[in-house]
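Dissemination and training. As part of the outreach component of the grant, students in the summer workshop were shown how a complex can be specified as a set of sequence lines and then modelled as a single object. The example used during the hands-on session is reproduced here so that future cohorts can follow it. Participants entered these lines:
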Amino acid sequence: MARVICAGLGPGDPDLMSVRSDRAIRAARQVAYFRKAGRAGQARAIVAGMLRPDAVELPMEYPVTTELPFDSPAYNDALAAFYDGWADRLAALPGEVVVLCEGDPFFYGSFMHLYTRLRGRAEVQVIAGITGMAGCWHATGTPITWGDDVLCVLTGTLPESVLVERMQGADALVVMKTGRNLPKVRRALAAAGRLGDAWLVEKGTMPGERVVRLAEADCADCPYFAIVLVHGHGRRPEVPE
Amino acid sequence: MARVICAGLGPGDPDLMSVRSDRAIRAARQVAYFRKAGRAGQARAIVAGMLRPDAVELPMEYPVTTELPFDSPAYNDALAAFYDGWADRLAALPGEVVVLCEGDPFFYGSFMHLYTRLRGRAEVQVIAGITGMAGCWHATGTPITWGDDVLCVLTGTLPESVLVERMQGADALVVMKTGRNLPKVRRALAAAGRLGDAWLVEKGTMPGERVVRLAEADCADCPYFAIVLVHGHGRRPEVPE
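and obtained this result:
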């Protein structure tokens, strides 16, 4: 049976990947990773300088990214065929393959679509990673949750009314998958009364890291993987001033 | 100015700490960590075998844990004095000290109370870690969030009615700080219609790890750091069956 190790890479700084992922990646003879067609790929960039010179690389290129609406049947079919095909290829590989996955593989990770398809066909080990959102809250230099704070993680792809309602019901907020959804996310935060406390973090822990107040950001020019954060301010032991 | 490095330890398995934390801990000449009085301490246990033989250890023993209600003025005062005192001691140390922190220091971590007190008095560096909740969802072998899933992180210390409402408004759920709150958490999940999908994870990624359906768990005997999880089942590309 094939052996597939999915190595969580963490938020981007290679020093923030786990000792176990670091070890697996440096020893790998076969390395697979997702990327947009024609791009070097973020996952591959994170492990630059770590791979064995003789490692065989298997770039898994998404057939579509933003050309089709993500909720269209055509998008679904293209992605399903893509994951089916790569599950077949990985299951047929001789020996062990390490699949790179940014952040934590079990937290909105693309690898999960291979994981469900490889069950019973390969021995799969998944190595946890620091999430991208954690890299972003560390980039702000401020803790995200205290005491009894409720943290809500949302995606910018949700309807605006859902965003507003969930934003009102939480103390700390994380919004993933912003990109072209950023103007909607900003309107929802304003409607929920949280825009003044919101931060936009691009490339958290990576070169080019940028932390700006969302109210002052240019929403027309936002990378897909930028994250919006609102910090919690929960119960903490302090001497009253 | 003193130099304080807070090393996130991750969920418990030493192999899951970051390369940067691993390096900082192995090089440390002074190491501080929180623990209950009279206990060896979970943070110290995670780094067993990693410290230099000549490392000076500074156990920071909580003055109270569960003897006083966490929302009482006496509890607040005791904790505030404890953090004030240790911030003073760390700021006065010669050279660098590494403070150990389970999970991610900025996610409900005790170190945050030292962090706010050390600002301007020490050069502080915080190293992110894999959260305890991530260790727990990996222990279940099932991804926590897919597609547009909303993830809500709650603490068992919240009022039951708040728990029910937040549980109804999310796809994936994490409940921290369960312990003696577990019967309340279970009632809230049942009221929200989510009990059948809930898992109780104790000691995720550590020796003695245990994953059980919450509906079948013994709520009278639950460690404080056990976590309750409900997985999301969001949008994913599949060929219709």
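The beta strands of chain A are 2-8, 30-36, 56-62, 96-101, 122-127, 151-155, 172-176, 198-202, 210-213, 227-230. Students were then asked to discuss how this feature might be tested experimentally.
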